[in-house]
Design goal:
The protein is of the alpha/beta class. The chain has helices at about 5-15, 50-60, 85-95, 110-120, 135-140, 145-155, 180-185, 215-230, 280-285, 295-300, 305, 320-325, 345-350; strands at about 20-25, 70-75, 100-105, 125-130, 165-170, 190-195, 235-240, 265, 270-275, 285-290. The protein has a 10-stranded mixed sheet with strand order 7-6-5-4-3-2-1-8-9-10. Strand 1, helix 2 and strand 2 form a beta-alpha-beta unit. It is globular, with a radius of gyration of 20 Å.
């Protein structure tokens, strides 16, 4: 799409700000200890699971007239399947006319769990695969996690009723494994493979193995571009994490647009209302479902997401790409930093 036309489209979407994607951080308990976790989840989380009825009360504030057909509630964590009432939650979400899905590490996802989730109306699922066996288990911190993920991905990919994808956090250790991972996913008949990189937050903040150099980032872009130029069964895309300059529309189907707070909101484990769960919740939370009407917050707040002029500072202040980028993804403004943590566009200026 022409950049000018796309900016007009983005501005109109921002003005309308129709909510169509809602994350529910239903637990922060997790059976893994991932090197890149931004929320530092654990088996015995400090936070109690949010009661289902509390989330449903927030969901019920969304007027029936403001529920688009493609509205999706996504259960995330932690590991959602550590909650015993996930099936009941899915059924209640469906009763209200919303579609729902989940993001999982796949450990608990077997044929019985799959049947139960489909019976509860699940329509979408994402499972993480972060390398070949040794790399995945190294990153996830649990021996055997790769084998469980592969089995879960096979079950998920074979289900025609599911809108499913696999996500991979690309790092120094698994970058060279991407061609082999691609062949593995192709053999499993996976339809969508989404790749992303890590920003320096959470456990990954000081882990040099998690962060690609600029040259490695370009290698990743070239890999995705190559796969997209020769369409196969697996649709490979880069995530929406930042503006990519010369790679725009070559590594994903649309131009960069951070939808956080524009079309995407979240209800966090403690009731806070934000956009994507990995955005700085202390800095950008907009209210709390235990004190505020969720939908009124969506309609009347979220100004930092819908007017990004505050981000025109530091390295972004005089950038010629500001109109296209608006200061990168909101998750890149984390902690006390007065400028964006990293610039994806600058990485793409590295020579091939």
């Amino acid at each position: 799409m022409n950049p000018l036309l796309f900016r007009l489209f983005r501005d109109n979407e921002t003005k309308v700000h129709e909510l169509n994607y809602l994350f529910w951080e239903c637990t922060t308990r997790c059976n893994f200890h991932c090197r890149h976790c931004g929320s530092d989840c654990s088996v015995l989380s400090r936070e109690k699971d949010m009661p289902l009825e509390d989330f449903l009360r927030a969901l019920d504030t969304i007027p029936p007239t403001h529920r688009p057909k493609d509205f999706s509630v996504v259960l995330t964590g932690g590991e959602p399947l550590m909650r015993p009432d996930i099936g009941a939650a899915g059924k209640e979400i469906c009763k209200r006319g919303f579609g729902w899905g989940m993001v999982s590490n796949g450990w608990f996802y077997d044929e019985n769990k799959h049947a139960a989730m489909m019976e509860a109306g699940m329509g979408a699922m994402t499972i993480s695969l972060d390398g070949l066996e040794s790399s995945h288990d190294w990153m996830r911190g649990v021996p055997g996690s790769y084998r469980h993920a592969i089995k879960a991905i096979g079950i998920m990919a074979a289900e025609p009723r599911l809108n499913s994808d696999v996500v991979t956090c690309v790092n120094k250790r698994n970058l060279k494994e991407l061609p082999q991972i691609y062949e593995t996913l192709k053999a499993l008949k996976v339809r969508q493979w989404r790749l992303f990189t890590i920003i320096p937050i959470g456990r990954a903040a000081n882990d040099s193995d998690m962060h690609l150099s600029d040259a490695e980032f370009v290698t990743l872009m070239d890999f995705i571009q190559d796969k997209r130029s020769r369409p196969d069964m697996v649709n490979v895309t880069f995530s929406c994490e930042g503006y990519l300059g010369r790679y725009e529309e070559k590594v994903r189907p649309v131009r960069y647009f951070c939808h956080a707070g524009i079309n995407i909101a979240s209800v966090l484990i403690d009731g806070r209302i934000c956009a994507c769960p990995n955005i700085d919740r202390d800095r950008f939370s907009q209210g709390n479902i235990y004190e505020d009407n969720f939908y009124k917050v969506w309609e009347t707040r979220f100004q930092p997401f819908r007017d990004r002029s505050w981000a025109k500072t530091g390295k972004c202040a005089h950038c010629r790409q500001w109109r296209n980028c608006l200061g990168n993804g909101m998750h890149n403004w984390h902690g006390p930093s007065e400028e964006v943590l990293q610039c994806h566009y600058a990485k793409t200026l590295q020579k091939d």
